[in-house]
Amino acid sequence: MLDKEKVKEMYLKGYSATDIAKSLNASKHAVQKCIQRNMRLLKKSHDAAKAFNKEVEKVTRREARQHMSDKEFIRRNKSIYKTNENGDIVLNKAISGIVSFDTPRRFVNEFSSGRIDKNIKKSGYRKSEYRKKEELFS
Prior knowledge:
It is a single chain. The chain has 138 residues and is mainly alpha-helical. It is built from 8 helices and 3 strands, in the order H-H-H-H-H-E-E-H-E-H-H. It has a 3-stranded antiparallel sheet with strand order 1-2-3. Strand 1 (81-83) and strand 2 form a beta hairpin. The N and C termini lie far apart (79 Å). The model has no long low-confidence stretch (mean pLDDT 87).
């Protein structure tokens, strides 16, 4: 037996009969019949909610596609950046002049030898082996 209130609530949010049937574990045909019999007058509000949901999804998809990472921005605008001796890419203020707030100022080279050595020391790599050797010789 279908709960008409839940069907009505989901129908007014813009869900289709198949989506309502999946969430309520009912057959698609039973939900369609319930909508036909009980919610004929709510068709306009259903269509409006459906159009709104479609528009929101479209805008969200477009926003997700238009995002550009810092690395991609620097790759496309190489002329305003210079590279330091350790491999970091830094904004060249002499060339760039005034830039917007969301322009990346620096891009750190995480594979420079200094950073790799620092990260290895920080991680404590092979400290346990040195302790075992000290215990053997003492």
